[in-house]
Amino acid sequence: MNETTGGETTGPAALGAGAGLLPGTGVGVLSDGDIPTRLLMFGVARHDGAIPAADAFAVAEACGRSPEQVRSCLRRLVGEGLFERDGVGQRAVYRPTDDGLRALAGFGGRALQAHAQDAENDPWDGRWHLVAFAVPEARRTARDTLRDHLGLLGGAAVHNGLYVSPHPWDKDVVATAAELGVTEHVTLATTTELVVGGETEPAALAARLWPLDDLAGRYQAFVDRWSVVVDLLEGMQRDDEQLADSTFLPGALAMALAYRACFDADPLLPAELLPQPWPGRAARELLIHSRRLALRIRAAGGLPTLFGTFHDLVDSLPAPDAEPGTTIAGDRDRATTRHQEAKR
What beta strand segments (E) does the chain contain? Predict the structure, then answer.
């Protein structure tokens, strides 16, 4: 089953091009609207944030993007002050400005936070962090920007002008308010006792303030639709088949797009506030596990690996529910070995 939302194909068919990138997916060619070129460019960025033009064009070609689409995106990134071009043509390197580094950090920061949250077993401290603001109508743009930023941080509106989060967001909020010039109109508070509409129980409050049922359904749909990829990749590994870059790169991007369609709406609440088992964690495990399987059987082609910087960081995190000192990468390798042995 496939689903197209906002021009994005979000089912297994998104892995395909031509007759199908992975056997059994029955996939077709992705249209121009399926792959945001900016996401592709950010995915090519190296550890220092630099985007080599040669890498960008090569990966984009494998994903069905035209050279003009890449050039247009890179021009926009420079025009927005996010990158500066060093050199010309295929030898150019686009180096991030301070704003570009912040954009790249935002691109992967929440995702890294989610994986770290899955891996850690530190309990929530029970504190609710509140932000109240009464910005005058004359500063409406600043008020709307602040409200949008609180939403991006995962905050929920208790009522007009009052937002809450279980995360310690004070420093971020203070910095944003100062940048917008509305510090005098913002009040922050922290409490362990929150009552909304007579409700005091934390998990019930979370269910009231955030659309968790809808979000869980979207994550579960992702897991249901994309879990077939693991079986396909494991079958290729057993048969000693290699995964071509013309398959791997578009597939990695398509799966990332489908995941982000869920993840971008996720407030990343602590486990204590979520229904269990939470399908968001299963979705992240599926995303990382399928990627690692794909990398093991990827044919040597010399092209960069999309989102490689972020996944290096994820793999260095402590593994969830594992012995101290075990990383996600090591724990997943052992799990895959056990799975393969069980099938023999």
Answer: 4-5, 8-9, 51-52, 83-86, 93-96, 128-133, 156-159, 162-165, 186-191
Q: Are 83 and 93 in contact (CB under 8 A)?
A: no
Give the tokens for residue 187. Answer: 């009040």
Find out whether 12 and 229 touch, Cβ atoms under 8 Å.
Answer: yes
Nearest to 303 by CA among 64, 66, 55, 92: 55
- What is the per-residue burial (b if ≥16 Cβ within 10 Å, else e) of 227-259? ebbbebbbebbeeeeebebbbbbbbbbbbbbbb
Q: Is the Cβ–Cβ distance between 90 and 53 less than 8 Å?
A: yes
Query: Which residue type is seen at 59?
Result: V
Place of tokens 């203070």: 174
User: Among all chains, which residue has been given the structure tokens 């869920």?
Assistant: 262
pLDDT digits (tens, 9 = 90+) for 2-15: 333 333 333 333 33
**Cα–Cα distance between 268 and 341 in angstroms, integer?**
35
Half-sphere exposure of residue 201: CA atoms within 13 angstroms, side-chain side? 5
Cis previous bond, 23, omega within 30: no
CA 149 – CA 182 distance, rounded (Å): 13
DSSP string, 242-296: -B-HHHHHHHHHHHHHHHHHHHTT-----GGGS-SS-HHHHHHHHHHHHHHHHHH
The pLDDT tens digits for 76-88 are 999 999 999 999 9
Domain residue ranges of the chain, discontinuous segments joined by +? 1-123+210-344, 128-191
Residues 6+ apart with CB under 8 A from 237: 293, 296, 297
The highest-level CATH class for domain 128-191 is alpha beta
Ramachandran angles phi, psi of 4, nearest 5°: -115, 120
338 versus 105: which is more confidently predicted?
105
pTM, full prediction: 0.75
Q: Give the Cα separation of 261 and 10 in Å (integer).
A: 8
- Which residues, at least 6 apart from 279, have a Cβ–Cβ distance to it below 8 Å? 216, 219, 220, 222, 223
Give the side-chain half-sphere CA count within 13 A for 92: 19
pLDDT recorded at residue 311: 61
